[in-house]
Each structure stands twice: as structure tokens, then as C-alpha cells.
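User: Second chain of the day. Same drill as before.
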Amino acid sequence: MFVLPETTTGPERRLLEATMDRNRRAVIDTARGLSETDARERLVTSLTTPIGLVKHAAMAERRWFQLFLLGLPESECDGPTTPGDASFVVAEGETLADVIAEFERASERSREIAAGFGLDDTWTHEILGEVNLRFVYLLLIEDFARHAGHGDILREQLSAR
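Assistant: Same format as last time:
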């Protein structure tokens, strides 16, 4: 579901943060309003489901902002930080509302963490080498946009049934 950007001018950081928030909303919007059954429906061979995409996005927030930028041990993060298939798995007792709330909490925590750093502050990533906050924003903007697209397609498939 396409939503026009609200912020279209201003300093670079303001534009990056507004685009992050827009893409966060887009990920949520692909699942919001679905039944619990439809949210868990597997329409592709991977573990990708509408609810799983939101769960995965929450993991990405924690992995990049809590684990990487703050350097917290995984045990002190607000939830799982393991990427890959495990990040799409939703526990039986978790509802769509629970998973959306989890992502919103993780996003708020990311905003708080990022506020303490400049765009040019750098960290050493074990695979990528030196990265800065600007890169983290751009990476997650791309990731969330891609997953919102996946969610749009899943939602379209669900609606067509």
C-alpha cells in the first residue's frame, strides 16, 4: 500500500529518519487488519508470512541499533537478534497485535539510540568493515522497503482468494 511521503525537504538526517518511519509504517500496513489466520498464511515456500515480515523487521531494528550501535550483549537486547529464517518465526501464542507492538517498541528504542549519534559516527562491522549511522539508515530503509513490497504481494494474494 503506497503512501506519499510527508517529509520531502530539510536536512539529510530529517529525510533519512522520515523515510525510515515511512517504511516502518509500510511494513506494518501490509499486515494490519488481517485475521490471525491470514497473517500466518504461507503463500511462498520460504517462512515469509505477513506477520513474519513484521517480526523480522523488529529483529533488524534490535540487531542494528541495540546489538551493533550500542554494543549490547544479545541477552540485554529487547528481543531476538538472530537473522535468517529464525527471525520470521512467530510463537503460537503471539498475536498480530503483539508482533506489531513489538516492532513499534523496537523502532522507538532505535530512534532513542540513534539520537545519541551523528550520521558520520562509525563502527566496525565484522563483515562490512567501517560503517556509519547513515549507512545503517540506508540499509534498513532498503530492507524495510523490500519487505513492505513482499508484504504487499502476500496481501494481494490473500485478497484474491
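The radius of gyration is 16 Å.

User: Great, on to the next one.
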